[in-house]
Design a protein that fits this description.
Blueprint (H helix, E strand, L loop, with lengths): L1 E4 L8 H6 L6 H15 L5 E4 L8 H8 L5 E5 L19 E5 L1 E6 L2 E6 L14 E4 L6 H9 L4 E3 L10 E2 H8 L15
Parallel strand pairs: 1-2, 2-3, 3-4, 6-7, 7-8
Antiparallel strand pairs: 1-9, 5-6
């Protein structure tokens, strides 16, 4: 399986009030994020983290990331300074790679991966899908994008019940919304 997530903000107390997360404290939030991740992602799954793992340093980042299942790929976010620090080198094996941008093809589908959303992206007019985080949107955002016919999806935990989201789920979500009052059932003859 292939999953995506973003904006975990492990150890970040202020993110709870900033985004309206339903947790009493940072320990409760971190444990819920770890539990939701490991209930979703299996050890052999691939998971692309589109930034903002933590604002803490390399030791704290490793401590949390080592608890999470799956083969991890990091698209750097604005708060992922830990990967730039010299002491991170001893832990760098935790990620398959670290990039700022990546284009991922799964079957016939092209996903554009970046921490930040784009107004237009590569293969935009050919149906590619922009995956991003950064904005801490809620679930309504992805529904609004779908209703507007925009193939852009916020993979952040705030928009996805605080858990990683599969590429199959994303494909379902970015499919054109059915016009209101119309049915997909074939007409009977």
């Amino acid at each position: 399986m292939i999953y995506f997530t973003s904006d975990l903000h492990f150890y970040h107390k202020n993110i709870i009030s900033h985004t309206g997360r339903p947790f009493r404290n940072v320990d409760e939030m971190d444990e819920a994020l770890v539990r939701n991740w490991n209930n979703t992602v299996m050890p052999d799954d691939d998971i692309y983290i589109l930034g903002d793992v933590t604002m803490r340093g390399p030791d704290a980042a490793y401590q949390m990331l080592s608890r999470l299942q799956g083969r991890k790929y990091l698209i750097r976010g604005n708060h992922d300074k830990f990967v730039e620090q010299q002491t991170w080198k001893q832990y760098s094996w935790i990620f398959e790679w670290v990039k700022d941008y990546h284009e991922l093809t799964i079957g016939n589908d092209v996903f554009i991966l970046c921490h930040y959303p784009f107004a237009e992206w590569n293969e935009f007019f050919r149906g590619s899908i922009d995956l991003h985080g950064h904005q801490h949107n809620h679930q309504e955002y992805n529904e609004e994008q779908r209703a507007a016919g925009i193939r852009r999806y916020d993979v952040g935990v705030d928009a996805n019940t605080y858990a990683p989201v599969s590429y199959e789920r994303i494909l379902q979500q970015v499919a054109p919304a059915e016009p209101q009052g119309q049915s997909t059932k074939p007409l009977s003859r």
